[in-house]
Amino acid sequence: MHGSGGQAVFVFNWDCCYQTQVHSKSCWGCLMRIVETMQKADWPAIFSRVTSAALLLAGVLLAAGLCTATPQANSVPSIFDSHSTPADSIRHLSFFVLSVTGLIFLVVFSLLTYAIVKFRGRAADTDREPAQVYGSTQIELAWTIIPILIVVVLFLATARVIHAIQDAPKPAEAVEVTAIGHQFWWEFRYPGLGIVTANELHVPVSDPSHPTPTFLRLLSADTDHSFWIPQLAGKTDLIPNRVNETWLDPHETGLFLGQCAQYCGTQHAKMLLRVYVDSPEDFKVWVRGQQQQANEDEKEAAGRRVFERTACLNCHAINGTNGTGRFGPDLTHLMSRRTIASGAAENNSQNLRLWIQNPDSIKPGSLMPAMKLSDAELDALVRYLETLQ
Prior knowledge:
Elements lengths: L1 E3 L2 E3 L4 H27 L2 H26 L16 H34 L18 H30 L8 E8 L2 E6 L4 E4 L1 E5 L9 E7 L4 E4 L7 E3 L5 E5 L5 E7 L11 E7 L1 H11 L10 H9 L2 H4 L23 E2 L4 E2 L2 H9 L17 H11 L4
């Protein structure tokens, strides 16, 4: 603005206005191109890719959370919460394998992401053919030799653990147990102690300074089973006409849960397993109790007669009676167990009565038949069984 004689004269800078106008048109064109690109985008495909990536990330986070969960947060027995030497070896091997495979996943996923972003399709490349690569000796050697080395390392690490567990020496103080898998329950025999029990395995805790491991011979009475206590040892199959072995040396007392890990029939899911790790003193007390004869309570003689005069004695054994059956669990010390039906129900009067009267109500498909006793016979039999401490 120039002033002269009290008058003001405005002079416009047309170059500046022109530049402003050009700049506005450029921004508007850029905005229109963005809108056009968004309209042409394959939104279903983009949404699918984003969803897949989110699900993959959620799965990884969930797996990591389950692996690191404390026993209080995760009540399911976990191989990552080991309490025995064989289980410790398996846990260390599992962490090593997960580390290697996790690193492989990160490398492959990173390269895949890089390739997708770097070489994604662009509008300018619609009519242009990508560069053709017909081979690379270096790359081909890398993706051949590196996987071979990884497999060899994993094989050697696994073989070392298998050898350490399967070929472990048996000390003279070891407890020997024969475990027999039946449809759908477990039989445990202690040959050196003269004890026969079912479904609940008692073993002594093993002090590192004075190890007292438990060695088990695994047999099957009918079909394939698998003996598995995740916190104490790995899976070992029980196969008809074959003897397999495993061992435990628990480092602390407590209850550890297991499961038949091989499908064996209708009630495979309820072929449960309970392992009680006792202190040396408690284990000796349990052994003395199991070595005693069955209680002879004359007040419950009527119930004993029901047992001896029905089909019960064809399958079950009770010391001191004429029942010597082997098809079902030994009942000599039935009430010393906390569960019945291989862990499917708590061992109490009500469940015991229901189990005898109608086994399918607790364990559908079990091989135990309904006895069809009268109410008086059933009451007498239950009272008699409750004396078998």
